Amino acid sequence: MTSRLYGAIEAGGTKFRCAVVNGRTEILSEVRIPTGTPTNTLDACVKFFDSVQASLGELQAFGIASFGPLDLNRRSRTWGRLLVTPKRGWTGTDLVSPLSDRYSKPVYIDTDVNAAALAEAQLGAGRGCISVAYVTVGTGIGGGAVVNGSPLPGVPHPEMGHLRVPRDPRDSFAGVCPFHGDCIEGLASGPAIAARWGTSLDQLPAGHPGGSILGYYLGQLAAAIVLILSSDCIVFGGGVMRNGALLPHIRYSAGHSLAGYPLSPVEDRIRLPALGENSGLIGAALLALGSGEAK
Amino acid sequence: MTSRLYGAIEAGGTKFRCAVVNGRTEILSEVRIPTGTPTNTLDACVKFFDSVQASLGELQAFGIASFGPLDLNRRSRTWGRLLVTPKRGWTGTDLVSPLSDRYSKPVYIDTDVNAAALAEAQLGAGRGCISVAYVTVGTGIGGGAVVNGSPLPGVPHPEMGHLRVPRDPRDSFAGVCPFHGDCIEGLASGPAIAARWGTSLDQLPAGHPGGSILGYYLGQLAAAIVLILSSDCIVFGGGVMRNGALLPHIRYSAGHSLAGYPLSPVEDRIRLPALGENSGLIGAALLALGSGEAK
């Protein structure tokens, strides 16, 4: 028996990753496309899927895990489009139609972080958990969640990176978020790190308080997710998390902030992604599979 | 046709409200029992249901909306029991067995605030919304939510009242939460108001900054719920909210904190309960109805 094939896109501000997977979400073919104009980028995606179809066979459905903000309301006329985004030229871009028009197959879409949470919940660090959140710490900070197996719906969707938290008393940095200044994204994203210390986290000298300060803020976010969503697994991924050095700082800060509330130790809930850099892409594939066999 | 009957309990730290409702959640009979020892209190509940059964007929199922923390994990040996609670004598109390043992009917249980969110989502201020949160501001502060029609599950369940938020620069009150000091509950609950100003909110003189300060903190909580849960309706109920005076302060603070993020005005999402003081009790009835006819 030939396994069915599915298309997956992880749409990011820097690059689009496209893949074709089988019903077990094994990646059979993959390409990385630098994010250019919407037309150029989406044309390149279609070209990739065309070529794979020609060699491997028909794709049954597509899943898109995208940066936001997105219109995810199925009753909306602009479902599947990017809402107002600082990413130049992309506001209003329809991510779905280029695929659905060309292939006449179902196209599913969710945020990159909801999709990553789905992948970690089904196949990664959150297996067996009831409520799995995924936070990416990179160029921006964003969060999504999967509850009882389904991505968390909302209007329009979570924007966890813009949470305001109490300030670390050691730190008076004003923050770089153009909307909020010192929200989490303004304080702990890659650009925030570059703006305050002139380099990336992994280039800071030994003994630098950067890890502890960033961990303080990200731990407050983890604590807020525990208190509001009661997630039993919170995965921290993205470029800033890559070497894992922040994890103990985040765990310590969250535990200290919660002070024994709720009752089980929160440190165990805070984890690195088991799927490495593939959580979002595998999540997109799982969205596509939602329509097909072998779920 | 005779409508089926259901039992509902709203279990609170001060009183237990018991009711018998029909399949349209109309309250046919109700009693309020001051919260004493677990045995006395639960005996009085059973006595009430016994007497109503004798006059109106058999009850088909029971719903309990309780103060917490609760064990809501159906796979746990201690499902339906109170976890460690500051309420003297109640830690470990089994709320379910006194009903299930006596009546041999299904008993459903959730937090008071998840149940209240369910009632407001189905019948109240959150009708037509995808994600409805309910925050009670009273002796304590707690929050629950209903997403796509189902109470938000988690481990053990949301504890929104213990969120830490940035401090109002006008305010240096240390807070009264025994766990966290100046979490939301420590700053804006009834006991916090009494401790800092020696009276209740509605007794403060005209021009007193209390409403604005409390609204600042509760608005931060509303903003956090929008960012993490992306709820399109957040209902604020409970004794401190009773006259509605805080609502504009909360709306202003949440809007200011979010600074245009997400895109739609957040003020419209923040509402008073449409079911008044009955949200929790009606929610308990809806839990019971989940097992029966006429959902």
Structure commentary:
Two copies of one chain form a homodimer. Chain A has 295 residues and is α/β, with parallel strands linked by helices. The first copy, chain A, has two domains: 5-112 and 277-289, Nucleotidyltransferase, domain 5, CATH 3.30.420; 125-273, ATPase, nucleotide binding domain (Nucleotidyltransferase, domain 5, 2-Layer Sandwich), CATH 3.30.420.40. Helices cover 32% and strands 20% of the residues of chain A. Chain A has eight helices and ten strands. Chain A has helices spanning 38-56, 97-103, 112-123, 184-188, 190-197, 210-229, 247-258, 279-289, and strands at residues 5-11, 15-22, 27-34, 59-66, 107-111, 131-137, 141-147, 150-151, 233-237, 270-271. In chain A, the strands form two sheets. Chain A has a five-stranded mixed beta sheet, sandwiched between helices. Chain A has a five-stranded mixed beta sheet with strand order 8-7-6-9-10, with helices on both faces. In chain A, helix 6 (210-229) packs across helix 7 (247-258). Chain A starts with a strand and ends in a 6-residue tail after the last helix. The mean pLDDT of chain A is 94. The interface between A and B is large, with 46 and 46 residues.
